[in-house]
Design a protein that fits this description.
The chain is built from two helices and twelve strands. It is α+β, with helices and mostly antiparallel strands. Strands 1, 3, 6, 7, 8 and 12 form a six-stranded mixed sheet that branches.
């Protein structure tokens, strides 16, 4: 009886397995002056379980201390800041260096977006998100437990407007639950296997 019970568990106790999914915007921003938003629609209805990160692909801008960036999920009303005027208010106008690369923001980053000066360029890489004053903050927990589907919005703002830049696209990525079930063919094999096991046990008795 115990053998049959274990077999039932192995055949029909299908365990949900997580998956990592990502979506990239179809467009970017040709000229970052003032406030700009770029949306991504996610059709997947599974629940976010972790691994949240955002990549700003091919982001270029002079005087990075002018910029703020945030991501929000419109349906849930949840939002996180990626960075907010790097170097400000320690420096009156923020850090004067430049952005020119792909910048990913995740809780696994080694540090916040660095303050670079003059003609220096902040290197591409994975960073922690930060709020005003360059204080590191966690962003993944803001979206854990919500359904992934809906509109994800990146907001980028140049608060000064004297410099310019562009964004190629942006990507949102996270882990989700898996609600997959075995294919019909797999179910048939399971049933046959169970039937064979039951028949064998009857013969043994």
């Amino acid at each position: 009886m115990r053998t049959t019970a274990l077999l039932l568990l192995s055949l029909f106790g299908y365990a949900a397995q997580g998956a990592t999914i990502s979506f990239t915007s179809a467009n970017g921003i040709s000229s970052i002056v003032g406030l700009h938003t770029v949306d991504i629609f996610v059709p997947d209805t599974r629940v976010i379980t972790g691994g949240f990160q955002v990549s700003l692909n091919s982001l270029a801008h002079t005087w990075l201390g002018d910029l703020t960036a945030s991501v929000s999920h419109l349906e849930s009303g949840r939002s996180v800041t990626l960075f907010d005027r790097v170097g400000f208010p320690t420096r009156s106008f923020g850090c004067s260096g430049n952005l020119n690369g792909t910048y990913t923001f995740a809780d696994t980053g080694s540090g916040v977006l660095p303050c670079v000066i003059g003609s220096d360029i902040a290197p591409s890489g994975t960073y922690r998100a930060s709020v005003a004053g360059d204080l590191a903050t966690l962003i993944g927990e803001a979206f854990n437990g919500i359904q992934a589907n809906g509109t994800w919005r990146l907001s980028v703002r140049d608060v000064i407007g004297e410099d310019n830049g562009s964004l190629g696209s942006w990507t949102v990525q996270f882990n989700v639950e898996s609600s997959e079930v075995p294919e019909p063919g797999s179910w048939a094999l399971m049933v046959l296997g169970l039937g064979a096991t039951v028949a064998l046990r009857r013969r043994v008795r």
